[in-house]
Amino acid sequence: MPRPPQIPQRKKTTPKVAKKQTEVDKAAQLFQQGFALHQQGKLSEAKVVYEAVLNINPQHFDALNMYGTAQAQLGNFEIAVDSISRAISINPRNASCYNNRGNALMKLKQPEAALASFDQAIQLEPDYADAFYNRGVVLQDLKQPEAAVASYDIAIQLKPDYADAHSNRGSALLELKQPEAALVSFKIAFDLNPELEYLHGTVLHAQMHLGDWWNFEDSVNDISSKINNNQKVSASFIAITLTDALATHYQAASIWSKDKHPINPALGPIFKPSSKDKIRIGYYSADFY
């Protein structure tokens, strides 16, 4: 007599497994919320959500990477390097992690370590235009303008409309005493993105060095107007060469210093010394010993 077919028994989900799956789902949902906030530019809010994800799963690769990226954007570069390095330890084959870590290392004034990180990104992804661009920035910082130009050239080859790469290529060519070629790069960058920070003044300054006065007065008036409207169109030292207006000089210097050298609250308040009736002057010389 044939035996009746056996109906497979459905495995019961244990409470422990169900709880783990719920945590995985919650972490995934939270990460998407944090990523959406990040894309909207709400960095502090995104950071908090990424932290919640990492409280559930400290090994969440995407959360570690994006948390580090958000921290870097907020100026917390040491935390950024630590978080992104943890992400790399989980997945050492992700090129964007090395690129993000390299950017944070640059901000920490560690150019050699940053260069190594960008090189690793390129090794993993040879057509990574951003990594070649960032590599060029590091090489300029390391006083290697010729190598920087070569790196920018590859970035431009991969992404011809890369305005930042054209602009920085121009700066590196100026260091190599090639002002004509530099001006060509600056003008390409300006045509691609006339709103690129500090570029308009750089273009005009390069023209001045070559004795190219075409449309000079109109350009100076345009740059001065934008500086007085608090726009980042010219470096402060270049602005001094373009106009004699002291108010414009002051505004250009204020814009530059706030952007490039912001106040660091970690230094604490600077107290003014109390005034004294007498002025004390000291004379020091190697002859007095």
Report what the structure shows.
The chain has 289 residues and is an all-alpha fold. Helix content is 67%, strand content 0%. The chain has 14 helices and no strands. The protein is globular.
Which features would summarize this protein structure in a list?
single chain, disordered N terminus, 289 residues, mainly alpha, 14 helices
Stretches with pLDDT under 50, minimum 5 residues? 1-8
The count of β-strands is 0
Shape field: globular
Helix content: 55-70%
End-to-end Cα distance: 119 Å
Class computed from helices, strands and strand pairing: mainly alpha
Mean pLDDT: 90
Number of helices: 14
Order of helices and strands: HHHHHHHHHHHHHH
How much of the sequence lies in strands comes to under 5%
| Rg of Cα set | 27 Å
Task: Provide the fold topology.
Layout: H1 15-39, H2 43-56, H3 61-73, H4 77-90, H5 95-107, H6 111-124, H7 129-141, H8 145-158, H9 163-175, H10 179-192, H11 199-209, H12 216-228, H13 236-242, H14 246-260
Helix pairs in contact: 1-2, 2-3, 3-4, 3-5, 4-5, 5-6, 5-7, 6-7, 7-8, 7-9, 8-9, 9-10, 10-11, 11-13, 13-14
